[in-house]
Design a protein that fits this description.
about 270 residues; alpha/beta; TIM Barrel; seven-stranded parallel β-sheet; two-stranded antiparallel ribbon
Length: about 270
């Protein structure tokens, strides 16, 4: 049974709607043993500077919650870094991640050529969903080749949530020429991928990544994945973790990974 949630956003993230304290109290109610806040830092993705957490306020707020609730639940301090294949953004994150005492770093691809597939207009640049998905995976491969300062690659097929046909016509075989080297690069760097249960909430019927990607990751020798809900409000915390656990087991894993002070630990399912 998965009783840790390692992908949470509070009101310290631009799109978070529940406070850190509300999420901690709800985690205790749910019987979780540990949670990790992973506030957004999508540096360089938005001209207005949104989705870049106020790190000083976040650090102070976390410290206050640690003092207040740390004897009731394990609280961990993380970040979700928005990766892009840019030398400037790479240098920024190298400095940023070494300067901050994070327990856990998710590396995620939220944009392709600085556009987010969350917005329907993104897909107007592509002939069909498959062309958009390929562009996304190709940029992820660039990111995975450039960066190795993260711990787990987040929601590896994030774009499938928002395609016009979602994942209805997705098959691993269509994109194996990109996905295989992407997974191999992540594995070679000694990094995990995340099983993100939001895919169920987004109507995919599977987590992110798709179970076919997760299975192939296991076949290629991937480490046990991290697990997170990607909750931005308390109602989504640990949502569909029973289904996520089934997907992880079906892929051939008997454990999952968590991080403390950037060190990986395995927990049996």
């Amino acid at each position: 049974m998965i009783r840790t949630d390692f992908h949470l956003h509070s009101t310290y993230s631009t799109d978070g709607s529940s406070t850190m304290e509300q999420e901690i109290l709800h985690a205790i109610e749910l019987g979780l043993t540990a949670i990790c806040f992973t506030e957004h830092n999508d540096y360089g993705a938005n001209p207005d500077g949104s989705f870049v957490v106020d790190i000083d306020a976040y650090r102070r707020g976390f410290a206050a919650m640690q003092e207040k609730y740390g004897d009731r639940i394990e609280l961990l301090y993380g970040i979700e870094a928005g990766l892009q294949p840019s030398a400037d953004i790479y240098s920024y994150f190298e400095d940023y991640l070494s300067a901050n005492p994070f327990d856990f770093v998710i590396g995620s691809s939220h944009v392709v050529k600085n556009k987010d597939p969350y917005y329907p207009v993104f897909f107007e640049d592509y002939e069909d969903d498959d062309a958009a998905y390929r562009a996304y995976f190709e940029e992820e491969l660039q990111n995975a080749s450039m960066y190795d300062s993260y711990d787990s690659y987040g929601h590896l097929d994030y774009i499938l949530r928002y395609g016009r046909t979602c994942n209805e016509f997705f098959t691993y075989e269509k994109f194996a020429d990109v996905l295989d080297p992407l997974l191999e690069t992540i594995i070679t760097h000694g990094r995990c991928i995340e099983v993100n249960s939001a895919g169920y909430r987004k109507g995919m019927g599977v987590p992110n990544p798709h179970t076919d990607i997760l299975r192939r990751y296991r076949e290629l020798g991937g480490l046990p994945p991290t697990v997170g809900s990607d909750a931005h409000e308390i109602s989504d915390m640990a949502a569909d973790f029973d289904k996520a656990e089934q997907a992880i087991r079906a892929a051939g894993f008997s454990s999952y990974s968590i991080f403390r002070k950037r060190q990986r630990y395995e927990i049996e399912l």
